[in-house]
Write a structure and sequence with these properties.
CATH architecture of the largest domain: 3-Layer(aba) Sandwich
Largest sheet: 7 strands, mixed
Helix content: 10-25%
Bound molecules: flavin-adenine dinucleotide, FE2/S2 (inorganic) cluster
CATH class of the largest domain: Alpha Beta
CATH topology of the largest domain: Rossmann fold
Strand content: 25-35%
Order of helices and strands: EEEEEHEEHEHEEEHEEHEE
Number of strands: 15
Number of domains: 2
CATH superfamily of the largest domain: Nucleotide-binding domain of ferredoxin-NADP reductase (FNR) module
Number of helices: 5
Distance between the termini: 35 Å
Structural class: alpha/beta
Length: about 260
């Protein structure tokens, strides 16, 4: 089902599952028809409305950042939240996809892997206990683990796993994670002339979520992350603010 674009519709929380020490999945009593990588605007009563990728037809997977995410993480079965969407474009479902996720960036990539198109999935996290969706991913794809401290898989950042892969064998490289990680991956792909195969899911401050307010526009093109994104191909992100800065709620630049 699709909820309204303008007004949130209420859904009831059915379960909150702790995935890692800092991330939980919130399940609710509606099933959305969506393309992996699309997001919803989640209204947290009395606090704020924030964008969240759908991690399945009936869930979002949340990491604490500030007030709204802290409130979401404190919610219990039976609590109500409001949802608008799904919004945005999402990832294309092409066979022989390489997915690369850092931290909670695994949330929009899990449903893509569940379709069976991801042949290799690189999952990165700071430590072993922060690896998100490890067990689910192991069942559906060849999983390569990277941790910053070497406590699981190989030692190093997620992009280091690219050294052992023949990138030109993949139809696309779908990426979500910290922007520094994503911009380093774009640089690496462009060094091999493969930037158009990179598909990057961007996080930007969002107010309306549906193309009206302009708060999520990327300099200098003005492309709206909520409408033309959140997934952009690598060549669209060369020579723009990506990897350098984003804007906060009042439009001020914040370095990435
Ligand atoms: C399309 C999309 C999908 C997302 N999917 C997920 C998801 O699946 N799971 C998840 O945990 N999070 C996701 N996020 C991020 C999530 O929306 C933010 O963490 C949330 O809005 C923070 O709200 P808050 O009130 O908790 O924190 P706030 O108080 O709003 O922010 C906490 C801190 O983070 C900074 N900040 C917040 N948003 C941005 C931004 N866009 N750019 C730069 N700095 C920022 C603030 O300035 C502040 O310092 C997604 C974002 C987008 C745009
Ligand atoms: S959030 Fe309003 S235009 Fe994108």
């Amino acid at each position: 089902m699709r909820m309204g674009d303008r007004l949130p519709a209420g859904v009831r929380i059915t379960e909150v599952v702790r995935e890692t020490p800092s991330v939980s999945t919130i399940w609710f009593d509606h099933r959305f028809s969506f393309n992996p990588g699309q997001f919803v605007m989640v209204w947290v009563p009395g606090i704020d409305e924030v964008p969240m990728a759908l991690s399945s037809q009936s869930s979002i997977t949340v990491q604490k950042a500030g007030d709204a995410t802290a409130a979401l993480l404190s919610m219990k079965k039976g609590d109500q939240i409001g949802i608008r969407g799904p919004f945005g474009n999402g990832f294309s479902q092409k066979d022989d996809t390489l997915a690369i996720a850092g931290g909670v960036g695994a949330a929009p990539l899990l449903p893509l892997a569940m379709t069976g198109v991801v042949s290799t999935f690189v999952l990165g996290a700071r430590t072993a206990d922060e690896l998100l969706f490890r067990k689910s991913l192991e069942k559906v794809t060849e999983l390569r683990i990277m941790t910053d401290d070497g406590s699981a898989g190989n030692l190093g950042f997620a992009m280091k796993a690219m050294d052992d892969l023949s990138l030109d064998l993949y139809s696309q490289v779908c990426v979500c994670g910290p922007e520094k990680m994503m911009s380093a991956i774009l640089l690496r792909l462009s060094e091999e002339g493969l930037e158009e195969r990179g598909k990057f899911s961007l996080h930007r401050y969002m107010k309306c979520g549906c193309g009206v307010c302009g708060s999520c526009c990327i300099d200098p093109s003005g492309l709206r992350v909520c409408s033309e994104g959140p997934v952009f191909s690598g060549e669209m992100l060369l020579d723009c603010e990506f990897g350098h800065y984003s804007r906060d709620g009042s439009g001020r630049r914040r370095p990435v």
